[in-house]
Amino acid sequence: MIVQVRKKKAFLISQFLGVLLILSIIFIQEGFSYYFSFQTLALILLLGISIYYLQSIKIKRYFFIVFPTFIFFIVISANLSSEVISRGSSNIFLTSMGILFYAAIMMILPQLKLRKEPAVLYMIKSVSSKTIWLIFGSLVVSETGLFAAFNREAFFEKNYRLITNYTNAEAIATHERLNFLLGESPRVCLFYGEPSFLAIVIFACVGSYLVASKTQYLLRDLGTYKKLESILNVQKIILIISIFCLLYIKSLSSILYAFVIIYYCFFKGILANIKLWKSILFLSFIVVIFIMFSYEYLFHRLTLEEDLSLIQRFGFLYDVSFSDLMFGIKNVSKIPVVGIQNGLFYIVAISGFGGILFLISFFSPALKLASKIQLSGFITLLMLAIIMQNGGVFSPNKLVLFMLVLLPLACTRAIASNNHNVADMGRY
């Protein structure tokens, strides 16, 4: 009796924490301040899950070479060119320590060995799938305009309150007047401030869901897959609504993410083993959705003579020399006024060769784990997308997205010990 009560309490607590994590991801850009916010709550919850289920940390030898090298380059940049690390920082020491803290977690995450993998996979899969459903539901409600406080205009007006905002109420009011004169409406962003961040959250949740699902399948989690066909049908629905949301958002990055999901999850997975007429029906549906919501925007972006977003993310590379890539950027004049809007290049800019080693040591173990579930290419693109998304790469919100993917990936370590054959994963 006592055991049953304890199990019930544990179940209720896990459900409560799951709901809390879902809400934290939905409102990850909201908060009273940068650290007193939902992004911090989500990070604390995921770190708590990691610590609770932690069995061991298999730190590789190269960590003791790579991380000190990364620290060395960060210290040099902090002393010689602190504005490269952060233009607006009032305390460069604390900023540098924060970078090293997040970098250490990022390097350790792929090295984790967890216990009770089925419980971890169930929780992460549940959180990611329900987050996708909530985003889809929010998108439907906001686009119908049923509630005045829950539509595009209302979300756009609240952007200045976001903890990582780069605007203010006056700028938003000016932009609204311009939209009115041009007959345009604000872009879809929901609670995230910009379409591309909404897109990367969906993309990360899809990646988390896929990794958890495939790992569950290989571990044959407690009979979960006795009804495999129904599981596959649910998975198809979640992937389809994710693709719909990404195409509807009308962001260049969201369209690219949708194409990645279609290729890796359908052409190399589910669609590879279903009947031809079903494949044609699905592809026809995707083409119709693409033409209705994304074709005009994509054509516009691809035919622009000057794409501001691309210039912000890649333009400064024209001024970067080989020595900058090796030793980090020391000439502040090479940094755009708005800062480096590409996390991948930011890492190299502040730490040079140390940053390159950091990226290699971060990606390599994660991709090795992903190869066990035949998702190496997908995980590579997903991790690059998270890093290259606007905003600081060493930040709570980015770390939350990484953990959503890397925690279920850590569970794939159990696959080798159980000697499961991956040859039958073609349809999954």
| Largest pleated sheet | 2 strands, antiparallel
Alpha carbon gyration radius: 22 Å
Question: Average pLDDT across residues?
Answer: 76
**Content of β-strand:** under 5%
Poorly predicted segments: 222-226, 304-308, 418-423
Global structural class:
mainly alpha
Overall shape: it is globular
Number of helices: 19
Helical residue percent? 55-70%
The largest sheet has its strands arranged as 1-2
What's the order of the H and E elements? HHEHHHEHHHHHHHHHHHHHH
Domain unit count: 1
Number of strands: 2
Distance between the termini: 40 Å
Provide a descriptive summary of the structure in words.
- This protein has one domain (2-425).
- The chain contains 19 helices and two strands.
- The chain has helices at 2-26, 38-52, 63-80, 82-85, 92-108, 117-144, 152-157, 169-182, 195-219, 228-249, 252-267, 276-293, 295-302, 308-314, 322-327, 343-370, 376-388, 396-410, 413-418; strands spanning 54-57, 112-114.
- The protein has a two-stranded antiparallel sheet.
- Helix 1 (2-26) packs across helix 6 (117-144).
- The radius of gyration is 22 Å and the shape is globular.
- The model is unreliable at 222-226, 304-308 and 418-423 (pLDDT under 50).
- The chain crosses the membrane at residues 12-28, 34-54, 61-80, 92-110, 131-150, 190-211, 231-249, 255-273, 280-298, 344-363, 369-387, 399-416.
- This is O-antigen polymerase.
Q: What tags apply to this protein structure?
A:
two-stranded antiparallel ribbon; 428 residues; mainly alpha
